[in-house]
Amino acid sequence: MTEKRTQSRRTVFGHLEIEYDDDVLEPRPWTEHQSRWAAALLGGLPAGDVLELCAGVGHIGLLAVSGSSRHLVQVDAGARQCELAEINAARAGNRSVEVRHGDLEAAIEPDEKFVLVIADPPWVVSARTDDHPDDPLSAIDGGRDGLDLVRSCLDVIGRHLAPAGAAVLQVGPEQSEPVARYVTDWPHLGLRVVESRSYEDGALVHLARLTQDATG
């Protein structure tokens, strides 16, 4: 028996045409803010590659590197998400995109470093996922407090962010402060919160390396 696949659809994200279907999370218009912020930061960063965690169909990272020559590595645990991310990269005409299917840490080599990390983890608390019946559970369920995958992304950022790099993490509307507490409570990550921005549908956190100047 062949697996029935839902019909794909397309939407405009920034200037990109993005393909998705019912098996993946539909691109959210507000997340264009994440792409724009990441792109602005990227312009001031040294040479190096870009990493996107929990990339989904790849739209946020694709828009962030649009117009640059940066190599983009996109990681997602979903096979269909990765398939669509590759389609969307090809449609965008970006040949510098590498899509990796696998767990966050397993898909990245231990010695790989990135000057920019974009992270789009699921952040809805498990008890509230029923509020989003049209969304795939795996794409939104962030665990009991909504931060399970957020913490995993922070751990990966801590291991793979280049010394002069930056990260832009997407979280829920009430989760910026818990993220700030987490990076403070776990100094081994070597991260600090530079700035947080709140929107109606979520929040963004800019992270950088914890420097001696920042500690005191």
Put the structure in a nutshell.
With about 220 residues, the protein is of the alpha/beta class.
Properties at a glance:
single chain; 216 residues; alpha/beta; Rossmann fold; 7 helices; disordered C terminus; transferase; N-methyltransferase activity; methyltransferase
Please give the radius of gyration in angstroms.
16 Å
Order of helices and strands: EEHEHEHEEHHEHEEH
For CATH, the homologous superfamily is named as Vaccinia Virus protein VP39
Helix content: 25-40%
**CATH topology name:** Rossmann fold
**Terminus-to-terminus distance:** 63 Å
Q: What is the quaternary state of this protein?
A: single chain
Proportion in β-strands: 25-35%
CATH class: Alpha Beta
> Per the principal axes of the C-alpha atoms, what is the gross shape?
globular
Going by helix content, strand content and strand pairing, the class is alpha/beta
Largest sheet: 7 strands, mixed
Q: How would you state the average pLDDT, rounded? A: 93
Overall domain count: 1
Number of strands: 9
Protein name: Protein-N(5)-glutamine methyltransferase PrmC, methylates polypeptide chain release factors RF1 and RF2
Pfam family, one: MTS
GO molecular function: N-methyltransferase activity; nucleic acid binding; S-adenosylmethionine-dependent methyltransferase activity
Keywords: Methyltransferase, Transferase
Would you write up a description of this structure?
- There is one protein chain.
- The protein has 216 residues and is α/β, with parallel strands linked by helices.
- It has 7 helices and 9 strands; from the N terminus they run E-E-H-E-H-E-H-E-E-H-H-E-H-E-E-H.
- It has a single domain, classed as Vaccinia Virus protein VP39 (Rossmann fold, 3-Layer(aba) Sandwich), CATH 3.40.50.150.
- Strands 5-4-3-6-7-9-8 form a 7-stranded mixed sheet, with helices on both faces. Strands 1-2 form a two-stranded antiparallel ribbon.
- The termini are far apart.
- It holds the Pfam family MTS.
- Keywords: Methyltransferase, Transferase.
